[in-house]
Fold this sequence. Notes:
The chain contains eleven helices and 13 strands. By secondary structure, the protein is an alpha/beta fold. The protein has helices at residues 43-50, 72-76, 94-103, 109-122, 138-149, 168-183, 195-201, 219-227, 238-247, 265-275, 288-296, and strands spanning 3-14, 17-28, 32-36, 58-63, 79-82, 156-160, 187-191, 204-209, 212-217, 230-235, 252-254, 257-262, 281-285. α3 crosses α4. It folds into two domains: 3-223, Rossmann fold (3-Layer(aba) Sandwich); 229-285, 2-Layer Sandwich (Alpha-Beta Plaits), CATH 3.30.70.
Amino acid sequence: MALVITxxxxxxxxxxxxxxxxxxxxxxxxxxFGFLGPNGAGKTTTMxxxxxxxxxxxxxxxxxxLDPEKYPAEIKQRIGVVPQETNLDPDFTCEGNLLTYxxxxxxxxxxxxxRTDELLAFVQLKEKRKVAIEKLSGGMKRRLILARALVNxxxxxxxxxxxxxxxxxxxxxxxxxxxxxxxxxxxxxLTTHYLDEAARLCDRLVIMDNGxxxxxxxxxxxxxxxxxxxxxxxxRTDTVITCLKxxxxxxxxxxxxxxxxxxxxxxxxxILLERCRPRKMLTRPATLEDVFLxxxxxxxxx
Length: 302
């Protein structure tokens, strides 16, 4: 399958700080590829290099088999970007933002008007076409930014925290639209802090921390590899921990709970009930969040 992005030993340094440290990855045509990681992991910095707005310090990077430092204009013509911040022009309406943006790509006025109509309908904002930006809700603004990123019919769509701050209904609408774009042949790269979003959308993803890639793969494969099929959560007490150590069962302490990854939750739960006698216990499917916290830790990041 054709590759849209190829990075080998990609590095970005700011003085003595290495924000992206010798990472390698590739993105296939037509897939949704995700970057996960805590704050400061290097996700956004990596995306900026792909978007041709930040030169790399070392390594190789190709987008559409072009070097972003040599062919930035050619690459930018073929990509769409949804930034993390809301940067719509407050002087224009919804319609005006899209029509004005189309001029940067030399899209003929008639074509731009038709595309604006189609995109406003696509993100369910057609009835808001004449509304000023300041009158829009946060969810409407995020959807309009997505529409703006699609004005030039991009082959590659890059989204930095696309559903940040959205309510569940708005998030699901954005997810639905991204899946529709993928079905139409678009390649999508996104960063997100929402692990359910990554699990639902991404065909493959990487987990980053401290500028490096810790793991790469399909979400379901990563869960099986690092967290098993299920997790047994038991209340954290000295008695339970002593009992688990006596059973030689690997476990992880998470706040007021003890987590045990397993492929046989029913059998393990029965043994724990008989021998450890916890007052509270539950079993659940293992998730990408279990993998993320196992690899990056539970310490709060600023």
